[in-house]
Amino acid sequence: MNPLILKNNLLFTGRGTTALYLLFRVIEPDIRKVLLPVNICEVVVAIVRHSGLEPVFYDVERISGNGGLEQIQEKWTNEEILLVTHNFGQPVMVDEIVTWAESKNIFVIEDVCNAFGASYNGRMVGEYGHAAIYSFGYAKIVENGIGGAVSVKDGELFDELKKLNETLPYWDSGFTTQAEEFANELSQIRSMAHILPESYCKLYETYSTLFLHRLTKTDVLDIKKAIVQLGKNIEDRRFKSDLYRKHINNDMITHRPRKPGEIIWRYTCLCKNEKFRNGLIKDLRSKNLLVSAWYPRVDNLFGYRQGEFPGGEFFGKHVINFFVDHRVTVSDIDKTVNAVNEFRNL
Hints:
Elements: E1 10-13, H1 16-27, E2 33-37, H2 42-50, E3 54-58, H3 69-75, E4 81-85, H4 94-103, E5 107-111, E6 119-120, E7 123-124, E8 131-135, E9 148-152, H5 155-165, H6 173-190, H7 197-206, H8 217-228, H9 230-247, E10 253-255, E11 267-271, H10 274-286, E12 291-292, H11 310-318, E13 319-322, H12 330-342
Parallel strand pairs: 2-3, 2-4, 4-5, 5-8
Antiparallel strand pairs: 1-9, 6-7, 8-9, 10-11, 11-13, 12-13
Helix pairs in contact: 1-2, 1-5, 9-12
């Protein structure tokens, strides 16, 4: 199973964010704005800003954490680029989004970074839009440490992407040092009781070039080898996610409904309230059990004030993710399930 095997205009890149940067540079929209979901990885906002564009956020659904056509239409004014994100391994109704977008001459980029291998209506996600971006970095479906990819339908655009990518440097020891410094500074900012947008903006401006590099032939070969194991990878993830679904039985946690064509990035649930969620995460981490709370709203992190996002606000305060990748064994999952079922936020 290889979602990329039939893609002719495919370019491997240093990261998923590198792929996005390359697209922004070659598209060159007249209106310097990009529509993107308000609950997304924060580095996406940073790369939009670094590309000289302005992010315009649209809301997401309360349960899925993904945005659909209704949310996009509510925020669209005249933006010419739309990022459609299939987050958490769940495909969105991308066909109707693309149909609407093409009627408005909007360039659609599918974000498949957390849904590699997912499908919608019998087609792989990433095949609907004008372009798609992929990631093979930390904790992705196919994990290689570094690496991303971009696919486009337009051949001339693809040629421009290749030329621009060749101007980027290869990853070296200097990047490794920068990555360590960035991680340390980001950890310090996140530990603050009140995060100042100025701190986030300055951090990503300082380290913006950290996300812009290209891969060696060896890197690309490593990614291709990992992709060969995608079918087994997805099967393992489904098996582990089924354990959580079957055995987590805490009245304060709601299991989200499955979706046809989904794959499992992390097993994502919703807690009854933020206090319980935060307490549970603290308890699990004290037991050295893996858990996360992706993704919160990112507009406030960078100081944007673009109105209310009730879906994104709800999802960000209630979401909890349980790991299903190679980092957790069945024994780890058993320990997590027991800890979750026993936890009471007193």
